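ok so i was messing around last nite and threw this chain in just to see what happens. nothing serious, just curious
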Amino acid sequence: MKKFFAILATVGCIQFASAADMNAANVSIKISGALADNRYFLCLPDVGCLSIHAAAKKGKVYPVFHSFDMEKIFVANLNTYRIYPQGLPDSCNVTVNPNQTLTIYGNLVTKADQTRVEKLRCTVN
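result:
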């Protein structure tokens, strides 16, 4: 498990605080298909790795205290220590600034050789 968290640390650093903080950009994840064992994380460069289960099932919103560009994402599997890169549709290729909320939608699909978010789309409000 320590090895996995070392991998997550190389992808980015998460800053935690109140999601209601007005100086934060917020990331909301509405991806179905995550298992209840909390093994899948959505990793955003310059942001960090965010629990898909906590966001989708428990309503967790992740604050980020700086602007960031969505250029690519990764899905990480805690059980296998694998990180799967994924390209973005145009709706997700955006810059997110403080006081905005990025919502990421889709369906997590796991196969023997690939894990990805299908029907991926994003909105920024």
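not much to say yet. The first helix runs from residue 2 to 11.
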